[in-house]
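Handout, section B. The chain below has 796 residues.
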Amino acid sequence: MPRSDGVVTTLSVAGAIGLVFVTSAPGHSYQPETHRALSTTAVDRSDLHLILRTQLGVDEGIRFAINGEIVRAWVGIGAHLEDVPPVRSLNHFHSPLKAWADAGGPLGQSSVYWQQNPNQGLVGTWSWPLARQRFFDFLTLPSPAARAQALADTARALGQVMHVVQDAASPAHAREDPHLVHEGYEARIEELRASLDATLRARFETLLGRPSNLPAASIFTTTGDPRAPVPVARLIDSDAYRGTVQTYATGAQAGLAEYTSGGYVSDDTIFLGFALPRRESLGAAVFDPPADTPGARRYFPKTMDGDAIAHFVAEGALYERLLFRGQTVGGFILDDKVYEDYAAQLVPRAVGYSAGLLNYFFRSHFDFTVEVSSGDPAKRVLTISIPPELTAETMDGTFTLYAEDMNGLRSPAPGASLTTVLPRGASAQALFTPVSGVRAYVLAFRGSLGEEPAAVTGKVKPTGPFVSVVQATAEFAGAEVRTTVTDVDDPSTLVVVERRSNDERQQRARGTFVSSTASAPGSHLKRVSLEFDSRMVGAPAARLFLDDVDVGVAWDRGASTVDDPTRWEIRVDLPAFFGGAAGILVPNIPRFVVIETVEGIRIKTPLIWWRSATSLAEARARRESGTACPSELQCEEVISHSTVLHALAFFGDGNGEGRDATSTGQRQPLTAPHTSVSFIPTGAVMGHGVGTVEQRGSLNCFAGCSPAASCSTSTVSVFAESVAEELVWKKEEISVSFGNLSGVRKPANTCSRPSADQLAAPALPELRFRRDYLPAEQSRFLELGVTPPEYEITLR
């Protein structure tokens, strides 16, 4: 059990100095500059830099400067100021063997209470609740300057809370030893830190540089104490140590005061007043330096009951023992070697637990997305999700979405707030109307986070730079097939056909990534993938290439040799363009390129492909005798030529077959501002402009008994058709056909089969489409304050 006379004995040494000295100049633990060094090192060991950069929208991370000091420095400033004014240090003690209400001694409250005290009085409040409030302000205040100051205050407050945790790694502070006059351990550490001797200073740097294990995540359990309800109290006292060997622990689940109290002694508690450490834990004495050399001294190592310490206590002369309570006869002393061996264990643990505190404070095991509503493009869906991982915690409180505009001003997004309970693996949604010109979305949470009440957490997701997928071409990968076939060749009839086509199963599409800013677009990409029809069965027969490197069907940053792609290409070699059961066409070709930016924006861009392209030329020559006409006109010699050009495009955002039609087959009139797909054809096909629908002429000119006749016909449909006397879009299809016929009638004895002219099937066309952003996309661009790229796609 801890002794009950420690403070009384120390006060008797102080003598006439009295209680006034105690109040005005209480003993410090590590000196303020030592605390600063411990804390800034802890910042470096923590995840704070990464969290600020990737989750909180602070690109400079811990190097972000506020009022002339970077965030890292503000943590150090807080650690330094926790002893200002000195009376604050009266609240930096905790005996883990006492009830928390009594664990701080007669002059102050326990450090587990002090670090969570919402009102620390006239000395100023810089506790955990203040840090939480200022963190909420950082997430939600309107102006950038006010938010920056809130972040500085958050960092300072955490530095002051970390100072209190670090004090638990000082034996005097965990063993009821207020060291009102002098404390050798802390003085030695400060001497090393402040030394002008490079060798001594290097020893301090070595202490800081030693590996430091962070506390286990499982240490953060509920306390059940309303004065210290936040599990961060467990960094000091896990409430497991009972002063026995069986309950003493050195692992990452041990509270820092428990580890220190049971494993080390202070100047006035060398094997006094506490069951541990005990004399029986000492090993055989050793001389350092060796015996019979100048300065030789016997040291006793601690070899059991916790971490092994080479120099645990030392023998000393009587005048030395007088400085240590109860060591006059047959006692021990602590010297610089002992203090430094203690520090080799305690300093890294103080750093590690401080880093653990930072990680715990800034934890945010949740995610959120803002997507266009499928039911109403003018609305947005906020989705908040808790992952199923064991590290995730139940969140019970209020989530509020804030929108940050192009000037950095933040305000709540109307309607984007919900109060709910989200356990691990759950999600919730809210529908809201977006504002325009959003530079970033911020989701702030206030409520219970796991075991922590009145917690605050949040995430900042910049919306830009906006990265667009720009398709330049889609082209057949194989060679054109051109055939000429004589279908009929007899004395009376000759039919010759030439056909030209390409294989739609083999294609490639190419394009680039374009950023809404001057920055390289590839540097903002987190993932690029191909999206196929959800009904498709089997492995996709398509490959995605980024900067000429094959990445399969998806690329993830860090998982490929490609770092910041600028170009993309998709190559397909399909067994069939369509699959599916009988009567159901399921395309096997990719429908979309989907990108996710490192800022968390997901963008799905439809692709356009060839579905087919064919042309045909036919020549017919025939001789036919008849009886209805006079004898001099009873034999016909007729020559006809016809050509047909037909092509189909496939739209990734079209219906199930990739056509520009709704699921019910409805099509939009040519006057409609938009149709079902986000492409609009441009240019001309064989001299006919987009939207041309016409039929002219007839081949019925050689009727009756006329001696000679010639006629022609044409049928044109360029991305449109006529329905109920109205022109409607048919953006996926073009069809152009021409025909002519000429004939003469002769006497039967002079009539023969004419010769057919040279055939020439039309060249396969190039089709051009301009990207036509639909209302849902335009709403997104307006929301994010970006101007989308204008571009054309060529099918060839």
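Note. Residues 642 and 739 are 4 Å apart (CA to CA). Compare this with the example in section A.
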